[in-house]
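dumping these here so i dont lose them again. two proteins, back to back, each one seq then structure tokens. dont judge the mess
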Amino acid sequence: MTPTPSADSPASLPNGMDGVAREQGRLYQAARDQTINQVTHQAPRRPLPESGTVQVPAGLAGLPRRPAATFVGRDAALTAIRQALQDGTGPGVISQAVLGLGGVGKSELALQYAHRHRGQYRLVWWIDADGPDLIRAGLAAFARALACGIDSVAAEQATVEEAAAWALSWLAAHPDWLVIFDNIEEAADIEPYLAGLAHGHVLITTRRDIGWHYLGITPVPLELLPRSASVALLAGLVGPSDSANVSKLEELAEQLGDLPLALTQAGAYINRTPRTTVAKYLRLLKEAPGRMHAATPVGGDSERVVAKVLALSHDRIQSVNPLAIQVLNLLACMGPDNMPCSILNAIPGADEPAVDEALALLASYSLITSTTKPGDGILGSEEDLVSVHRLIQAVTLARLEPERRDSISAGAAALISAALPEDPRRPEAWPVCRALLPHARAVLAPTSPTLWAIALSLGHSGDYRTARDLFLEIHNRVNSSLGADHPDTLATRHEHALWMGEAGDPAAARDQLADLLPIRERILGADHPDTLDTRHNLARWTGRAGDAAAARDQFTDLLPIRERVLGIDHPDTLDTRHDVARWTGEAGDAAAARDQLANLIPQYVRVLGADHQETLITRHNLAYWTGEAGDAAAARDQLADLLPLIDRVLGADHPETLSTRHELASWTGEAGDAAAARDQLADLLPIRERILGTDHPYTLLTRHNLAYWTGEAGDAAAARDQLADLLPIRERILGTDHHYTLSTRHDAARWTGEAGDPAAARDQLDVLIPLYARVLGADHPDTLTTRHNLAYWTGEAGDAAAARDQYAALLPICERVLGADHPDPLAVRYNLADWTGEAGDPAAARDLLAALLPICERVLGADHPDTLITRDSLTYWTEEAGGQSRAVGDGFI
């Protein structure tokens, strides 16, 4: 028997039985085997109302929530969206997309836009669009919301597919609406819906930077907040007790990388969690970043925290391309910015195309940012660089178990070490090591040879301050792990001292080496090569700090020790002999330096070979001291003979070859051809810029000397202007107190005077002297030279008596510091005589020069240019003893 149900109720239950279950028209009788078939007659579902006739109900709200009360730093993005939607022309819907990293604020931006402009639309509707099913469900909800006021039963009965189709037909039939599709995963998911629409505006938010141009959409890229906006956002969230603590807010914004979601999460957590201040949150963030990035503020949405939002992208990428997650894990261990992509080509088991595909997938999710740097990449050509937001790094690492994290970090360290050039000191290696530095710092142990090599490379590249700071960092970490007396700790102290000197503080380098020497003697022994190396460099920086005679004496004392310990032919022993000669010259005896180097060269040839780099450098320095001893033409000729040899052995672009060209130009000028010197330096400058870089100290030295010889060739104003242009560059690269920077200021004053403004030269030097005294010391030779030239330009500015008095006060200091026979005190004596004559006492000038001449002949030689000038001036003032004056400036200063 088949019972007949009523038209408006489920089937009646036969025989009063109530133990019945219903499934798809079949009744299963309790406790029985037979089945009773049933035919169910359902009432036909009502159709949805005609979409073209349905109007928007009053008060219909289609947004998920109210916009955030604190919203800063996005005015330009809001304007860009408005412009794109308002200025769009042509048939069809006008669409725009907002593209960016998860948590960067895409959804909040769309919500703010919709809220601000809702009065300009008949309808604003929000659809969560993370996948095709959610898009259909969102459109169906849109349809039911519109249709329920007319036929709620039809709206309720419609399937998702029917309701979504109705929603599209409504959108196609009506203008003046805005629909926001939030978090589109693939452009293909939204394409079918856009194609069928003829009116209205569509705003899309997405993490995926792929496929939009095919839809005619150029997304608005949403970047991180500017720092000022980050601080303002935090100040509006943390509460009044912390909102005025700008420095801590800036520090927190820095730690959170200016990511709006992280800032909002942190601000709400601080505001709603008792006893939590900005300072405490910073500490917690440092101690347990994974926990804090996953922490939900009281009353907050647990799905809208940084860890959850970013984890969604990780999970999807893992399912598509596991290598991409492996690459992201490696990048999370390294520095956040500008990792050369080619380093990743060495990932075991991955080839370059596979790595490129992995990077492309990560970039499409906005998890990494790719840029291209031309010219000096790891591969010697343009280089693709990849950057990762620090919060992505933190969340990525927090998802890993400690052992897995350590293993990945070790893999990252291996990639960095594999990318290190064979000889990091060579110019072609410098940009590579510079690019590796932040990533090496992140993953390498402080005792890593790779990190040490990178630090040395930076120093050789001319980045003295970074080398100094990196060796200090290495030293502190090694000292902490190995102890103050460990040989590796002592080695890092030694290197830090050397680069501190190169960075412009020779006195500090000297003092640190002086402190280190007895420790190395105690730990390693007085005769250990490392101890002797410290003694060698202590002597060197003693000289660089201004005491050339002490440096000479220290090297002289060291020489027999190195001969005994290492042997007379050991390269380190030869280096010490070389430096004895150099500092003998710096102490005032250029002829002795020349002779010592001349005697040393045959030993270099016998031990190392005629073509060895150290032999060639010694020949270079022999030429220099030959010129300093008074024979500029011979210095020029020796360097001219050396240049093709050093070119052949080391190459035309080797730094030592370029140094030889530089010295050849200088001695060509000293030999009397200033124009040729200028032209040679002008030719050299672009080569040094190309090989060493525009900011390398040696490149800047060439610029400095090009200005000098431009002035000597007759264009004092051009020299002044070139030095004025150079000064801010040296200040930026080396610092305002570096002795090279001070030298540029000094010479800029000199050429200001030569260009016709002696009073300005005087005033500039007067300001400069206290700076020299503070940085180098009142008795440093460079300080004394500046006082010398201040006296000269004081006289040139019209006060001969003041110039005379300044020279008179300076002379005993120069003689005490440098020695009476040093060339500099002899120059002071000459100018004291000259300005005594100009001040009205030619007889006294004559007598002073008569006393000076035999000293010049004995110390410098009878034919030295300065001796000849002294003889000529003696003749002049003898003739002028009647009180006549003359133009000055032809003497030596």
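---- next one ----
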Amino acid sequence: MKQFLRITILFILPFIVSISISAQEENLYEMDLESLMEIEIVSASKKAEDIFEAPLGASVLSSEQIKESGATSIMEALRLIPGLIVRETTPGNYDIHLRGYDGVDPKGLITLTANTMTLIMVNNRTVYSEFQGQTYWELLQINIDDVDRIEVVRGPVSAMYGPNAVAGVINILTKSPTKKKGASFSTYSMAGAPNSVITSTSAAYSFDNGLGIRLSGNADFRDRHKVDYFIFNENNFVDELNETEVTNILGLPVLDADQPYDGVYLAGPQAGQPIPNYNIHERYPDKKLATERYGGNLHMRYNKNDLDLNLMGGYSYARVQRVYANNNIAALSTDSLNTYFAHFWGSYKGLTITTDYSKGFNALVGSGELLKVNSDVLTATAEYDLKISENFSLKPGVSYKTSSYNSMGLGSTEQEIDPATFLSEGYEIVTPEDGGDVTNTLLSGHLQADYKWDRLRIIGAARVDKFQHPNKAAFSPLISATYKAAEDFLIRGSYGRSSRTPFIFDLFFDINLRYPTGTQYQGFALYNNLVYRGTERSDEIPGVNEKYNYKLLTVDDAEIGFRHRISETFTLDIELFWSQLNNLIALSKVRNDTIAGVNPLTGNETREAIEYYSFINLDMKPQQTGATMSLTSVPFKKMSFQIFVTVQQTKINDYADAIDVNGNPIDADGDGKKRSDFYHKATPAFTGGVNMNYRPTKKINLNLNSYFYSHQTLVINNEMNQGVVDANIILNGTINYKITDGIKIFATGRNLIGGYKRQYAFTDKIGPSVLGGVNINF
């Protein structure tokens, strides 16, 4: 029945609306090279300009280019943009980084491998989560048919866009409701094997008075290509995830698959101990599921004379298997998420204002209350474009943001592990003193200057971000210059420092955890005690007289580059970059102690171990050096191609072997050294792609694109787990056939030669897929 509904959504919905007037989108593949270099970008300097003139490393990807490539999602489409590392973890779910810095701490948890340093925006609205820092791509309310273009700016631009634009910005700009007069309808929908159904559909109407309304909806269903799971404690993959195949955090294996899970072991080393129930069916209710998501949006726009007003709202729901947090069993967890938002933005002459509100929920299915999070975020920004002269302009601005989160892990919660019920019911909550509501606010002021003299252009920007927690201000500067040596040759250079938002989890985590050691004395289980405190609560740790000094993560970046129209058919873009990451933060043990206990059988006093943990800054200095090259060509009107590659090397300097409870480095391996330098291997040394498009006739379009990356190794969990990913070439091919104006059908093959390979450590093998679909624009 579910499959029938999916097919119905795909093939019936596009024909519900019948409209007589048709119009085609602008076809970029029929432009000459000069026209391609004149494609407009806004995100590089916050003003519309030709991509060739952009003062920073930047790229633009249009809706037409995405659809002609056969991309199945916005995330996959990012593989068509230079400088981005895009690896599919499970079908439809991706790990996305800009240039790198993923998982630089080999002692960190798998949670810390997520991209926390790239700012993702939709119509300049931030969709970045500040709980642990990352973007929930599966919760984007939009899909491919909503996209007008995607603009990417490489390099630290916090001075222009605020915290988290450490590595750069990905700004997804949606279609305007007033783009076409009268009624319009569009869909980009497909289905195929392995079991996949994807649809993105919209209807709009633009009135003569400048008002337009657009309603859109999307859905995405995908199954995993091969079902297996990486078990951390086993340090290996298993094909069958069930009670007999896993080992829990306490190391109590199920010895006999025929034994009931309610009771105790009857023999062996675990005799008399409770048999753990891993509750696999609740944690993984559908092991074949990769992606199930729905989204919808309503966008209203009024645009007349100098006044431009927009109001947009939407909702999305997703249930996915992905890498997010360690659920004590496997690398993958089943996540259930939802969010809705309201976004107003507008401009009048030089004034621009934007405000948005979002509310969301995220939970690891079957993993107890600790990993459930509710969020409420409100932001407001105002900027004014002040034109001083023909060649000089200023743009001052202010912004305000308040972020509220609710989670048991933030609420002075005491929890206890019961070996018999831990994995079926999670941690037993002993004393939740409060609901775990915490709020952080951000007040910012920024100024941008743009000066042009003859062939020289200089852009300077500075921003101050004042956080409530910690009570600190971050200063982010940016200076960029371009020099047009000739009409077809532009040189540019830039320096910037960007900061990252302090995470709610790092600041306010508040848990007391008690668990049995597995050792018994006179029939009484001995316990250990773990106390976790975020930096804003670290003064609750005995012996700590004041809160730990939380230093904001920053990145310093310097770049030089040039763009050159080599001929009427070739353009070359090269950028060289160097960056250093400062103030990486990690969860570390800060104190060992013992506390008094009482043996309930004898009444005698016992001593129980207690360990205190908090987040401290590491003084390691990761440095990255690299280059990105892109060659674009239109050899003749019906054909175009782009080849791009990024090479990089990341070195970790001054990495501590281990640290003591005072945060000082110690010699852990006995080699006489407390610190070491080594090359980081989790970020691929090179990535790149090729995108070729050929239109042999007016009705047929052929596209061949590939994405490739080199060998990589991700080390996590105190170097206990190591995931190796082999070099890979992902080849995609798509053929489009135009039935009539506004109606195309297409067939696409994805990952045609890559085989069943894992693209990211500890995750799924991704195989080939074949899909067919429709692309309608009326």
